[in-house]
Amino acid sequence: MITDLAERIGRYKRFFAGRAPGKLLILCDPSDAYPSDVEIPAFELSEFDLTDDADNRRYLDMRILWLERLWQCRRGILDDAIPSTDIYYGAGTETAIVSDRPVRITHNTSWIEPSVVEWGDLDRLRLDENNEWFQRRVGAAKYSARALQGWAFLDPCHFGPLDFANQLRGNQLFYDLYDAPERVHELMDFSTRALLWLGDAYRAVVGPVDGGIVTISSWRAGIWTPSVSGYLSEDAADLCSPSVYAQFGRPYTQRIIDHCGGFSVHHHGNGRQVMGVIGKLRGLHLMQYGNELHYPRCVEDVEAVYQQAGGTPLMISCTAGEVCQYIDALKQTQAVLRVSVDSLEEAQRAIELVRQVSTV
Fold it and tell me: Taking residues 184-199, what's their average pLDDT?
């Protein structure tokens, strides 16, 4: 599907070779400019009975066809994107790997009621390889890796420990941080062990790509990072103070990073107060900043965000017009830009501008 994979990975290797302002890479999203001659399948997760093996395979095949068609639409876009997809069954099925709670599928995600309603429920959670959703997730990784046939890559992303604990306990967790801190540490320890178990199972299937991994695969276009780890989400951290995250979040995320030799982290713009604490994680490759409604867009204040993150490389979303508007500020950072474009011509102009100023 792309003929210059080695060149693209080469740019990522130079990007991650050291931390320095001026290193910029770009991924374009032409979703508003798809050519009319390519039929992109439309489907929802809720259309499939994921507990039925045949229907589950039909869903996985549809995702791969969707990926193929989207990459047909990217013909001629010579950016830094690498074709990739993840194992997607919605959020609820990820914590279902340790629980017997029923999973509800709604449109394009899944939900599960909190499994730890009383603290005694924690003792009933198990890391059991015969768990239905553990089997289904790892099976989906194996099936998809074979079906992709090396033209695209599988992203072994998963929750971070605090997000996993939030799913298991529900939003009661945020009261527990103050009312039952020792119990929270027990829950965080279990969540960390569960994610190491799931992540190792994924990585046994996915394997390395030129010594690293392709990850952060939203838009069906991922990036290459130096260790065989992927990325994890720290959305729940955005609802914490720096001191709370430093006590209850970072030590457990650090265990996962240490186990894998490195990791990237996703969080949102409503969590700028914890960016400095996240940025202190050893082995952190990159911090993805998700723009949040009612909060400033990252590109509008990108130099301050970069400083707040302690010089950690960023991944930010913006438009092609914003790339032009804020290019002088962007040059003072190290960042991967995910750029939405209205046409293939606009994509090419944005790529050319980034290439002109980037030191990669």
Answer: 98
Whether the predicted pLDDT of 163 surpasses 90: yes
46 residue type, one letter: S
CA atoms within 13 A on the CB side of 295: 14
Distance CA(272)–CA(183), nearest Å, equals 27
Contact indicator for 242, 309 with CB cutoff of 8 Å:
no
DSSP 8-state symbol, 101: P
What is the distance of C-alpha 155 from the center of its chain?
A: 8
Tell me the C-alpha distance between 61 and 356, whole Å.
39
Instruction: State residue 330 phi and psi, 5-degree precision.
Output: -60, -35
Q: Please give the Cα distance from 195 to 220 (Å, whole number).
A: 23
Residue 315 bridge partners (DSSP):
288, 336
Q: Which pTM does this prediction carry?
A: 0.95
Beta strand 103-106 pairing with 109-112: antiparallel
- Measured between alpha carbons, how far is 249 from 318 in angstroms, rounded to an integer? 28
Beta-strand (E) ranges in the chain? Answer: 24-29, 82-86, 103-106, 109-112, 153-155, 158-159, 213-215, 221-225, 231-233, 263-268, 284-290, 314-319, 335-340
Q: For the chain, how big is the Rg over CA atoms in Å?
A: 20
Q: Alpha helices, DSSP H only, in 97-238?
A: 132-148, 161-169, 173-179, 181-206
Predicted local confidence at residue 90, as pLDDT: 93
Assigned token pair, 120: 């005694």
Decide: 176 and 188 in contact? Cβ < 8 Å. no
Q: How many CB atoms lie within 10 A of CB 6?
A: 8
pLDDT in tens, 315-330: 999 999 999 999 999 9
Torsion, Cα 176 181 184 185, to 10 degrees, reads: 170
Token pair listed for 76: 């001629």
Q: Is the pLDDT of residue 33 over 80?
A: no
| 316 vs 299: CA distance, rounded Å | 7
